[in-house]
Amino acid sequence: MIPFKTTSGQVVKLASIVVEMKRAGLDDNFIAAAFELAHTDQGVFDLMDLWQGATDGSNRDDVVADIQESIDDYRDAPPSPLKKPYVNFDKLDDVAREVMAKKAKLRDLIDRHGGVSAVAQKSGIPQPSLSRMLNSPSMPRRSTLYRIANALDLPEHEIVTERSR
Amino acid sequence: MKCYMTASASSSTSPPAPWPVVITEWALDSYLNLKHSQVFSDQDYRGTLRPDVVLLRDGIPSPHAKFANSKFWGPAKQGNVILHPGHKMKWHHGPGQVQLRLPVMSLSRSAFLCEAYVKDSSATDQRKMARFKTHMNLIAQGRYIHRGTL
């Protein structure tokens, strides 16, 4: 694989995207993290480019959630390959059910604190990412749960699940 | 010299070691999503998906005829650009009558399974290929979570 390094033209393009993202009301920390990563990760650069080129709000939301996933991937990546237990295919449905049950409780908590938009703003998690996390059976990231717990001033045991990653 | 010949003869007759097919956490998470959304059934998984993926143990490029079919296997692409060393396993109108895609990275005689998805539009495909680039980058740096080997 050839390491990615932005050209001058790409840096200027990124700058224009950053201005547009700011105008669209995206969180400063999100924009800054995306901008920094896009200099060395072509996937993040491409996503920023796709965000700028997206014509409707729903496509832009999908791209924002993807960019946040990539930022989280880098932040949570272990320094060397990390072996975690295998999940047998026969257990996938059980895992999904467990995760969704925990997420239903989390959504209750979020609703009691003003709903997804309010919690997204308080936690600095982009709203499309928070919505995606709540609606999918993916194992939630511990780092995301901590951000929510901190924003809502909740103790760890109320929010972190055994099925978090 | 004798020793060299013996070793050489022995290595030419023994079958090559199988490639580990690594299930990354991105792959596991995508299985959870797709299974929960009923994109594929247990029968699809056991009868089609898993047996196809297990063929990767025989290495990339694969010796299996099935891999010569571009509707089943090919380089990962974004537009016309090939994302080396990325590949895509494709099931067209197969399980669940959807276009299921499994990005696979080959590195150091291992096949890394990444985030599977349903190709429901070209926009989705572009986003997923961008994510795959990030995953390949992290795998190349050894910064990934291993959730099992096939």
What characteristics describe this protein?
heterodimer; A: 165 residues; 434 Repressor (Amino-terminal Domain); 2 domains; globular; B: 150 residues; 4 helices
What gap, in angstroms, lies between the N and C termini of chain B?
39 Å
The number of distinct helices of chain B, counting runs of at least 4 residues, comes to 4
Query: Percent of residues of chain A in beta strands?
Result: under 5%
Helical percentage of chain A:
55-70%
Largest beta-sheet characterization of chain A: none
**Overall pLDDT confidence of chain B:** 89
Gross geometry of chain A: globular
Proportion of beta-strand residues of chain B: 25-35%
Using the CA coordinates, give the radius of gyration of chain B.
Answer: 17 Å
Quaternary organization: heterodimer
CATH architecture of the largest domain in chain A: Orthogonal Bundle
The CATH first-level class of the largest domain in chain A comes to Mainly Alpha
What average pLDDT do the residues of chain A reach? Answer: 92
Radius of gyration of chain A: 17 Å
Work out the helicity level of chain B. Answer: 25-40%
Q: What topology emerges from the helices and strands here?
A:
The complex is a heterodimer of chains A (165) and B (150).
Chain A: H1 8-23, H2 28-38, H3 42-53, H4 57-76, E1 82-83, H5 92-112, H6 115-123, H7 127-135, H8 142-152, H9 156-159
Helix pairs in contact in A: 1-2, 1-3, 2-3, 3-4, 4-7, 6-8
Chain B: H1 2-13, E1 21-24, H2 25-36, H3 42-54, E2 73-78, E3 81-91, E4 100-107, E5 110-113, E6 117-118, H4 122-140, E7 145-149
Parallel strand pairs in B: 1-5
Antiparallel strand pairs in B: 1-7, 2-3, 3-4, 4-5, 4-6
Descriptive overview:
The complex is a heterodimer of chains A (165) and B (150). With 165 residues, chain A is mainly α. In chain A, 68% of the residues lie in helices and 1% in strands. Chain A has nine helices and one strand; from the N terminus they run H-H-H-H-E-H-H-H-H-H. In chain A, helix 1 packs antiparallel against helix 2, helix 3 runs antiparallel to helix 4 and helix 6 crosses helix 8. The longest helix of chain A has 21 residues. The two termini of chain A are 28 Å apart. In chain A, 28% of the residues are buried. By secondary structure, chain B is of the alpha+beta class. Chain B has one domain. In chain B, strands 1, 2, 3, 4, 5, 6 and 7 form a seven-stranded mixed sheet that branches. In chain B, a hairpin with an 8-residue loop joins strand 3 and strand 4. The termini of chain B are far apart. The N terminus of chain B is likely disordered. The interface between A and B is large, with 41 and 38 residues. Strand 1 of chain A pairs parallel with strand 7 of chain B, so a sheet runs across the interface.
